[in-house]
Amino acid sequence: SDSQLSKTEISSIKINSETVPVYQLRYNGNNALMFATYQDKMLVFSSTDMLFKDDQQDTEATAIASD
């Protein structure tokens, strides 16, 4: 198995009504990027803070994938 690529602790997000898996790619030791694919789009996040406000998913963060 690849130790640099894994599912994140949040494991998935909702885009429209679909559940989309979120993966994490670790590089240079402590750095990480999270990404998800939806239809023909790839969403890349540098932090889970970009996906959530408090404990709720931030719908604005994934709205671009809905277009």
Automatic annotation (TrEMBL):
<dbReference type="InterPro" id="IPR018671">
    <property type="entry name" value="DUF2138"/>
</dbReference>
<dbReference type="Pfam" id="PF09909">
    <property type="entry name" value="DUF2138"/>
</dbReference>
<protein>
    <submittedName>
        <fullName>Uncharacterized protein</fullName>
    </submittedName>
</protein>
